[in-house]
């Protein structure tokens, strides 16, 4: 399973800032990084980035990269905005798929929307369609998600917090895992060493014998 995460825009994209100066890309890349880390806990999953911290990657380069890698799923992560400047009351979560409403993309978008609403408690703006480049030019299942409004004073404050970013990443990953039936990797069992002291050696030997019968490695020392 190959997944491409796209943190929308870049550090220097003009206009992609909240009224108090937060860059949209700062939020997008943080959520993408958290989501990548979470996805790597699943079996047979490889995660790629469409974006770069070094430059603002053009949209065509992003989708060409995804297509050349033949990824299975493309998720573009954004923060929303409304109006030409200043704060306003527009708010909530929304997800987008291409206007043809591909079945798998629609299913993934609906799951992403549901998990994000449950995780954030923000207004549900629904799953919508749009002729966005990343939805039109990708050859795989592709969705775009808007995780809150930078132009809403309360939501902009949330977008800055590590806790909110983590909730968004977890919601996106839960949706992907459910959509594709991903299975978690088994964690290696931790080895724990316990030392017990007895007044009589025979008591220690009895406990050691019982532990060995149950599969534990027990040693008696004086």
Short descriptors:
222 residues; alpha/beta; 2 domains; 7 helices; 40% helix
In short:
The chain is an alpha/beta fold. It is 40% helix and 17% strand. It folds into 2 domains: 2-180, Zn-dependent exopeptidases (Aminopeptidase, 3-Layer(aba) Sandwich), CATH 3.40.630.40; 188-222, no CATH class.
So what's the overall shape?
elongated
Structural class estimated from helices and strands: alpha/beta
Q: How far apart, in Å, are the first and last alpha carbons?
A: 54 Å
Radius of gyration: 24 Å
> Helix tally?
7
- Give the helix level as a range of percent: 25-40%
| Mean pLDDT over all positions | 94
Give a short account of the largest sheet: 6 strands, mixed
- The poorly predicted ranges are none
- Total strand count, please? 6
Give the CATH topology of the largest domain. Aminopeptidase
Q: How many domains comprise the coordinates? A: 2
H-E order: EHEHEEHEHEHHH
Q: In CATH's first tier, which class of the largest domain applies? A: Alpha Beta
CATH superfamily of the largest domain: Zn-dependent exopeptidases
The proportion of residues in beta strands is: 15-25%
- The appropriate CATH architecture of the largest domain is 3-Layer(aba) Sandwich
Widest sheet, order of strands: 2-1-3-6-4-5
What can you tell me about this protein's structure?
The protein has 222 residues and is an alpha/beta fold. The protein has 2 domains: 2-180, Aminopeptidase (3-Layer(aba) Sandwich); 188-222, no CATH class. 40% of the residues lie in helices and 17% in strands. Strands 2-1-3-6-4-5 form a 6-stranded mixed β-sheet, sandwiched between helices. The model has no long low-confidence stretch (mean pLDDT 94).
């Amino acid at each position: 399973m190959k997944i491409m995460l796209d943190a929308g825009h870049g550090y220097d994209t003009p206009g992609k800032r909240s009224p108090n100066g937060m860059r949209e890309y700062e939020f997008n890349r943080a959520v993408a990084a958290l989501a990548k880390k979470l996805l790597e806990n699943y079996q047979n999953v490889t995660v790629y980035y469409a974006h770069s911290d070094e430059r603002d990657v053009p949209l065509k380069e992003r989708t060409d990269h995804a297509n050349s890698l033949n990824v299975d799923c493309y998720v573009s992560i954004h923060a929303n905005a409304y109006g030409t400047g200043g704060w306003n009351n527009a708010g909530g979560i929304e997800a987008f798929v291409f206007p043809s409403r591909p079945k798998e993309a629609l299913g993934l978008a609906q799951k992403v929307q549901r998990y994000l609403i449950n995780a954030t408690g923000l207004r549900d703006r629904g799953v919508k369609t749009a002729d966005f480049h990343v939805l039109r030019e990708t050859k795989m299942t592709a969705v775009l998600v808007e995780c809150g409004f930078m132009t809403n004073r309360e939501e902009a404050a949330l977008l800055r917090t590590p806790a909110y970013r983590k909730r968004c990443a977890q919601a996106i990953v839960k949706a992907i895992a459910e959509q594709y039936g991903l299975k978690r990797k088994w964690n290696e069992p931790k080895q724990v060493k316990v030392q017990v002291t007895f007044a009589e050696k025979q008591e220690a030997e009895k406990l050691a014998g019982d532990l060995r019968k149950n599969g534990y490695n027990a040693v008696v020392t004086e």
